[in-house]
Specification:
about 450 residues, Alpha-Beta Plaits, globular
Length: about 450
């Protein structure tokens, strides 16, 4: 009689993430640059601070791009999400928390402690602001201020981390073109063009931002300012451009291309999320509870800005005099709570903890507007082939909008979600080619793959 013995199951811990010597050296350069940049704010010598500022930016830029070239260029092309939850920087570890505190602190200081005094002192950011004076004079013909500092940092982050994304996703033509697009619109339309308008003594206008995201562009006060200071030609065009894109261009473009035409190709908020926020995309909460809060909050914000805009125009018309004393405080309250705290402090400061699309997913009224159009009127959808899905979960892991893509792929259901920004990373990360971005006829958008039994069809909201 023989006996059969079974060995106990031994669980081996996952391998510790390995960082090569070259990577450590390049990342050290980035770290030194960040420390040097922080010391500029406390340097009493203006000339030394200016030199240190530009040296710090050079170290950060060269170090980051060099690291991306070494990290992604010295291995076969493809999406790899290895060890993300094991790293302190991308797994909500100590480095992630430190990064979140620094980003949040910077936004708090920028918004509420950097207004200039009579001597042109910008508080804690004074030396950083004035280090950009020569550049600001060359571009805008005026000294730098806290918002020019912020725009410079923002644009530099999109360009540098965009270079990283180009290396990481170099095997995907769609990702390369999409990344180049957000880099182009941020640099050209959200940074250089507004500066050049100021140089010609015209209103600083951002042609790549529209109502309701850039909510004040259709407020009566802003419209009047643009018409007055922009002149009879340019001012009228600015007002026309903002209104036409918001109410005519957006529905038409979304009908053909979904919300991706804006959220993933043009918008500066989305551009920062897709570049600087790319290391954190896996952190987005995929639970049903998070989705319920998403729906409750984002559509509430959309309703608020629609009502506020209507109230402001009603008050400006004089039809309801009682509205005039309250509309201005209401607009300031919206600007503080939504325009500053939500979109800035939380929207970017919480990247390392909640993912890169916190603002886009939970608060952006433009995303809500585009999402309604996409879900109910657009030709865009992501088709799936459930017969080829191996349930690896790569698609869900890279979805920054909190969509559990794998559930759709397993059933062969097309993805028609209002939240989807069409970044295409789920398709790029799929090892079997299960997911495809399509702009087909509206008929059949909700039909599952014929390989899936009709009784299994279940559309998730």
């Amino acid at each position: 009689m023989s006996s059969t013995s079974t060995s106990p199951l031994i669980l081996t811990p996952p391998p510790v993430p390995h960082t090569s010597g070259v990577e450590k050296a390049l990342l050290t350069g980035v770290g030194v640059g960040l420390v040097a940049l922080a010391t500029v704010a406390f340097d009493a010598d203006a000339q030394r601070a200016k030199i240190c500022f530009w040296v710090a930016l050079a170290l950060i830029s060269i170090g980051t791009l060099g690291w991306a070239w070494w990290k992604f260029g010295h291995q076969p092309a493809g999406v790899r999400q290895d060890n993300l939850w094991l790293r302190g920087s991308t797994g909500r570890g100590a480095i992630a928390w430190l990064t979140a505190v620094v980003l949040t602190g910077f936004y708090v200081v920028l918004y509420w402690f950097s207004s200039p005094d009579d001597q042109g002192n910008f508080g804690p950011l004074n030396q950083l602001v004035h280090a950009l004076d020569p550049f600001s004079q060359a571009l805008r013909h005026k000294p730098s201020d806290q918002w020019f500092l912020y725009g410079t940092f923002y644009t530099l982050a999109v360009l540098i981390m965009g270079g990283r994304a180009l290396w990481k996703y170099r095997h995907s033509p769609y990702q390369r073109i999409r990344t180049a697009s957000v880099m182009f619109f941020q640099l050209g339309f959200a940074f250089l063009l507004p500066g050049l308008l100021l140089a010609f003594q015209r209103p600083e206008y951002y042609f790549s931002y529209f109502w309701p995201l850039k909510y004040d562009y259709l407020f009566p006060g802003t419209v009047g300012y643009l018409l007055k200071d922009g002149g009879p030609g340019l001012g009228v065009f600015m007002v026309f451009w903002g209104a036409a894109i918001s109410f005519i261009g957006t529905p038409i473009l979304t009908y053909f291309y979904g919300k991706r035409w804006y959220c993933s190709w043009v918008c500066g908020c989305g551009g920062l999320a897709e570049t600087a926020g790319d290391p954190y995309r896996h952190l987005s909460d995929k639970s049903r509870t998070a989705w319920r809060w998403e729906v409750r909050i984002i559509y509430t914000v959309l309703v608020l800005i629609v009502l506020l805009t209507a109230l402001l125009w009603l008050a400006a018309s004089g039809a309801v005099p009682a509205l005039q004393p309250i509309t201005d405080p209401l607009s300031r309250a919206y600007g503080f709570a939504i325009g500053s705290v939500f979109s800035g402090v939380i929207g970017v400061g919480f990247y390392p903890l909640l993912g890169s699309r916190v603002w886009c997913r939970f608060g952006c009224p433009m995303a809500a507007y585009l999402g309604l159009l996409q879900k109910h009127f657009s030709r865009f959808r992501i088709t799936t082939n459930g017969a080829q899905c191996i349930s690896c979960g790569n698609c869900s892991n890279v979805c920054e909008m909190g969509i559990d893509v794998k559930q759709y792929a397993q059933r062969g259901e097309p993805i028609i979600r209002a939240a989807c920004v069409g970044c295409g990373l789920c398709s790029t990360a799929c090892p079997r080619g299960v997911l495809n971005l399509e702009n087909g006829p509206r008929e059949g958008r909700y039909q599952a793959s014929p390989l899936i039994h009709p009784d299994s069809l279940r559309i998730l909201s």
